[in-house]
Description:
alpha/beta; 3 domains; Trna Endonuclease, Chain: A, domain 1; single chain
Amino acid sequence: MIEQLNLQDPLALGLLVGTAGMLVILFLLVFALLAVRRSAKATEPLADALRQLGQSVQTLDQGQQQLTGGLRHVSEAQAIAQAKMVEVVERRLEEVQKNMGESLHGSSQKTTRSLTELQERLAVIDKAQTNIEKLSGDVLSLQDILSNKQARGAFGEIQLNDIVTKALPPDAYSFQTTLTNGKRADCLIKLPNPPGSIVIDAKFPLEAFEALRAADTDRGRLEASRLFKAAVQRHIRDISEKYIIEGETADSALMFLPSEAVYAELHASFADVVREGFAARVWIVSPTTCMATLNTMRAILKDARMREQAGAIRRELGLLHKDVERLVDRVGNLDKHFEQARRDVEQIKTSAGKAGGRAVKLESFEFDGPEDAEPLKAIGD
């Protein structure tokens, strides 16, 4: 299959022009031969034509050579330009590869750092998940405890014990104390008379409170409120009947609610029940208010103990006063001794001064006056 000529290529164009010229020459030669055959008279014009044709061929050959040189020059220039372009392209490719390598290295480092941070965060999340699972288990355990009445009672008693032991000295309270009526109190605070020992009993009306919170209709809330109110009133009545004993305990008692939420709901929505507690002399306290009440009791105990020790304190003050009086007398005697010693020292200094003066006179043999003879005589005695 003959390949098509590219007319845009200078070399192909030159070859085409040369081929056309050769065809023209052949055509003229054939025409000349034919003309020779036809007429001998046409020889001279044919010779002229041949000469002209030769000149044209020579001119055409020169043009072809120039065209070939131009094509060679263009080819060389194109090769040089192509080489430069290849060099530029290679340099650009190296720069692109270098930039891509640096970018890929930086991206790799960032990716590695991000993966490391992600792994650390995942470890933290796993740890938090473990803590959440543990807390969930603890919550479930607490729910199990609170779902049982006896366990719930023990929970309230433990919380009460913890608050009391932190607020009062060990000899100011006792737990699970049996009173003269045979009833056992969760905690008995030993206060002086008046007011006397006061009982704290832990109560936790959880079922009624949960029913109140779970009610989603007006009728349900009304019924739950009635049950909650009845449960608290029953606890108030039991404490008033069991733990307020004339001559043994104070004329009031404390009902401990181990839940701030129950305490807040009671005071917010059932003020009449709280007033009933006041009338029965049963004071309802939460963990926070119980701690404040116990701190007040501690101040009462401290004041009572100070009154009990007032006689001993007065005796000690009397003895201390006598000791101070004796100390004052002894300091006075010591001061007298110091004064006598001071006078003795002054006299010793006077005698020493006189003895020194006489020694100077003896050293200089000054015996002229009658005043000197008497001291010498005294020395002879």
